Amino acid sequence: MRFPKLTPAFIVCTSLAWSLSCSGPASAGMRAQYGLNDLMQDLAQVKMADGQFEEIRQSKLLASPVKSSGTLHYSAPDFMQKTVQAPEKQDFILKGNEATLVMQGKTRHFSTGQAPQLAGLVNGMRATLAGDGSTLDRLYETRFSGTRNEWQLLLIPRDAKLRQFLSWITVSGSDAIIEKIVSVSASGDLSTMTVKENVTLAR
Amino acid sequence: MLVCLTCVVFGTYRTDMAAFFPAPKTLGETALLAQVSGDGAASRLILVAIDQAPETVLTEFSEQIASRLRRNAAFDGVLNGDDASIAPIQHFVWDHRFQLDPSLTPERLNRDEIEKSLRQDASLLSSDLGPMLAQSLPADPIGSAMTVGEGLQQSGGAGPETRSGVWMTKDGSRAMLLLYAHASGFDLDAQQAAQKSVSDAFDAVRSTLKHPSSVRLRMSGPGVFAVASRDATKHDVSFLSLLAAAGAILFLLLAYRSVLTLGLALLPVIGAILAGITFVLLGFGYVHAITLGFGVTLLGEALDYSIYVLTQSDPSEHATGTARSLWPTLRLGALVSIAGFGAMLGSGFIGFAQLGLFSMVGLSVAVLVARYVLPSLVPFGFRAKGAPLIGHPLRFIRSHQPVIRGALGIAVIAACGALLTHKGGLWQTDLLSMSPLPPETQKLDTTLRNDLGLVSPSKFLAWRARSREAALETGEDLRPTLEALVTRGAIKGYSLPSLILPSRKMQAYRRNVWPHGATLHQRFAEALIHLPFKPDAFTPFFVDVEKARTAPDLKPEDLPPLLGLRLSSMLSQNEKMGWVVLAPLDGLSDEAGLKTHLPSGVDLVDLEKQSRGLLYRFQHEAVTLAVIGSIAVIALILSFLRNVRTTGLVILPLLGAVLVTAALLMAHGEKLSIFMIVGFMLIVAVGSNYGLFFARRYESDEKRTHALASIMLANCCTVAAYGVLSFSEIPVLHDVGKTVAIGTFLCLLFGAAFTNEAKA
Fold it and tell me: Which helix (H) or strand (E) holds B269?
């Protein structure tokens, strides 16, 4: 295992993992403990998800944090749209291998084939949403903690290139519902997104 | 003879299709032939597919092969989707972003525009791409690198998916690599060596596998095709010619039952081949392998002369006497054939013109050898022992003429009917059909190109210039027009050589576009007042701008290999036309609208239209030449025989044979190609000789028997030789071989049935 040395990010992530693994109530009872595979199975059941989010981004380039809010839409297996409504309208769409960013009347296309780092990020997101455990494991070191009602997934990029700008992500939620995504970049930029979503499960 | 041999041994031989096609006359044809014949920068491309193994194994192969080939000087570029694939271009674009950014103008750098850029940066930073952009933003707040990158991306296709860091199909079943060989597609030996290093690298990786698997390597691309078609041409020319020769020799042995005589029969052929090659080398500087392929089948035709002399030689008058008495017919036959082949000299196809010259010289030599050298070498009292047996089928036809005439008459009427009522066009309309590649190979290429997202553009803007700078400047002047057309939706995108290498004039302009350092700082400070950025966030940008003010001019040799190749695919120097630019257009939807905006000297080139036009030109030319050749043949026969009826008896069966041949080819599902038209010409050239001998008067039954045997034997050798060629996969060999084999055989039937001895 290649953990970053004693960087602030490392300390934050280990403390997070520690606190979560301690705080998990032993509600699983007689059954085997709820784990990553169970979570992936639950997430794989999600056919469609809609929600609202609030996000706070901090960057060393910015004098103060930027707050934004909007809606999220996911449709299995590989469509995701994030629409920012405030402070400024912005659309971010993931479809297959194409990422599209629409803002200020301009549309930008990014192909994951042309930006390998983007591929790592996008495929990671997609694998999490689709409950594709094997892809997720290929791209990230994964740590699962918590219970079915209150789980947390820590993702650390395996690819050194990806780690150059993304140190780690934590995704947390309850059942098949994602509630919070925190990501920390290598330069120390931090994004915290809280989500309220409704999911439609496959029958 | 010695001179000939020296020439033949040291002559240049070419196998590429470019040498076979006519020289381009317009910008559009230049573009088209560059695509079809594997000329130009695109010819260096090698597409590689690795499949039939689990994804992890494929990834391993892709990485290992790429790392081996990157150490090999035979490759200018090795792309497999990993970071090293695109890093050189990314670095180049980043390092030279202020030299390449086409949007850099003084207006772009005023306070309002800067504020607009920075506002956009703030949004980007808060988007999901933020972490990625955060690294470049401080040094590039006006987004130059992204503008340059987008410009390079236009009309470039989406590219393949990356799985585990390498290019792979969506289902993970096939890994792909894209290689740029250092050698051009023309340099076949170097291309072959490069392809061998790919398969060597593959084998080396496979040998490290613990479990030997079914993993498979496949390659495609112009260079691969060129090598494959050279091999196929070499194989077909040497192997099939040998086979054809073997067939002919078998017939000769059957007729003469003497090895010595067999050697004698081949004498005019050998003389013909040596002289033919020598004259083509002298006239054209090189011999095309396809010319050689046909030239060797000339053996079918040149052999005829020895056959006529040897088979008809009568022990009572010795071969010299026979040759003397046959000479008028022999001479006329040779003249007719030479006239027929002579028409081909006028062909724009260098290959056919070569074949014309080759045949004319070869036949002249062959007929002279048959008349003056061969007979004196024939042993006294020679008689072709197998002749009565061989001539038997013709004697049968002669004795059942009414029935066979009826049958053949019906065949001609049916053929006319079939040709007149044929639906779906008689003509081959696809230029690719002339390509010497088997369909499976072409299919593999299409699959790999789709996998790799390589779209070959079919529409270009084309212009010429006196110098590289002038060519680049024209493109730069054109850019605002093209941008407007993109905004209007008339085109989706475009590519210009100046996006990769700006003209020196433009580079000087961009160096001086920056406001004074203090002014630039002032404008940023004002723009940042209402934005959330830290005041010192863009220090790296100011440092890089200072460097850009004094950056040396970018030169073609500064480009990373891949961009260099891309530039030379758009901008090339041509001996006849100077500097030629072919700038691809993407998604053209309003052709008329585009044309009204083009300045004079800039043309829209549609490759598909060009392709059809060029093919039409070829077909038109082939038909014209065939008609001219046929008229020459008729005129010659008429002027020598001085008898309309006999001339008709010789010519009309030929017409019948050509018609039935055409109908048979169509019935077989083939479309008429220009190669078949050439085949028709050859039918007339060869078949007319049969007619002349059929129409000749013979003094005795025995002479008649031997004459018929000689015609039959000549035809057997021709059908054997051309029939073997029809097994070739190379369209030109296949088409001509099949046409001539069927046609000359029909000439024999028609001649035997209709052409009787002329009355005294």
Answer: helix B259-284
Instruction: Please determine, for residue B22, whether its predicted confidence score (pLDDT) is greater than 90.
Output: no
Q: Could you report the per-residue pLDDT of B588-625, keeping only the tens digit for each?
A: 888 888 889 899 889 898 877 877 777 787 788 888 88
pLDDT in tens, B486-528: 888 898 888 899 999 999 999 999 999 999 989 999 999 999 9
Mutate which of A59, A68, A69, A132 to test chain B, going by most B C-beta atoms within 10 A? A59
Task: Judge whether residue B39 has pLDDT over 70.
Answer: no
Of B271, B263, B188, which is closest to residue B8 (Cα–Cα)?
Answer: B271
A19 in a structural domain: no
To probe the interface with B, which of A56, A60, A61 has the most B CB atoms within 10 Å? A61
Name the nearest CA neighbour of B385 among B219, B527, B204, B254: B254
Q: How many domains, chain A?
A: 1
Domain membership of residue A55 (yes or no) is yes
- Least Cα separation, residue B80 to chain A (angstroms): 10
CATH number at residue A143: 2.50.20.10
What's the average model confidence in pLDDT over B556-570?
Answer: 84
DSSP string, B303-337: HHHHHHHHHH--TTTHHHHHHHHHHHHHHHHHHHH
Asked whether B134 and A61 are in contact (CB, 8 A), the reply is yes
User: pLDDT tens digit string along B408-446?
Assistant: 888 888 888 888 877 656 666 665 566 656 677 778 888
Top mean-pLDDT range of B165-179, B344-358, B372-386: B165-179
H or E segment at B572?
strand B571-574
> Domain extents for chain B?
224-427+611-754
Could you identify the residue written with the tokens 């086979």?
B243
Q: Is the separation of the CB atoms in B605 and B28 below 8 Å?
A: yes
All residues at 6 or more sequence positions from A197 whose CB lies less than 8 Å from its CB, including other chains? A49, A50, A51, A52, A72, A177, A178
Residues of B in contact with A63 (CB under 8 A): 532-535
pLDDT digits (tens, 9 = 90+) for B203-212: 999 988 777 6
In the stretch 54-73 of chain A, residues with CB closer than 8 A to chain B read: 55, 57, 59-64, 66, 68
CA distance A66 to A87: 9
Q: Which of B247-261, B422-436, B539-553, B705-719 has the highest mean pLDDT?
A: B539-553
Residue A134 lies in a domain: yes
Tell me the residue ranges of DSSP E strands in A104-167: 106-111, 140-146, 151-157
The domain containing residue A181 runs over which residues? 33-201
Query: What is the per-residue pLDDT across A40-92, written as a single tens digit (0 to 9) for each?
Result: 888 888 888 898 999 998 888 888 888 889 998 988 888 889 899 888 888 88
The band of B158, judged by pLDDT with boundaries at 50, 70 and 90, is low
**Whole-number pLDDT of residue B700:** 84
Three-state secondary structure readout of B334-395: HHHHHHHHHHHCCCCCHHHHHHHHHHHHHHHHHHHHHHHHHHHHCCCCCCCCCHHHHHHHHH
Distance CA B323, CA B376 (A): 10
Facing residue for A185 by CB, picked from B131, B153, B162: B131
Contact status of B457 with chain A (Cβ, < 8 Å): no
Least CA distance to A83: which residue of chain B? B127
The answer to whether residue A1 sits within a structural domain is no
Closest partner residue to B134 (CB to CB) among A64, A68, A185 is A185
DSSP-assigned beta bridge partners for residue A181: A171, A193
Q: Dihedral, CA atoms, B645, B651, B656, B659, nearest 10 degrees?
A: -140
CB pair distance less than 8 Å for B125 and A112: no
* Residue B446: C-alpha distances to residues B159, B220, B441, B642 (Å): 15, 9, 9, 59
Q: Which residue of B has its CA nearest to A183?
A: B131
Q: Which of A86-95, B94-103, B742-751 has the lowest mean pLDDT?
A: A86-95
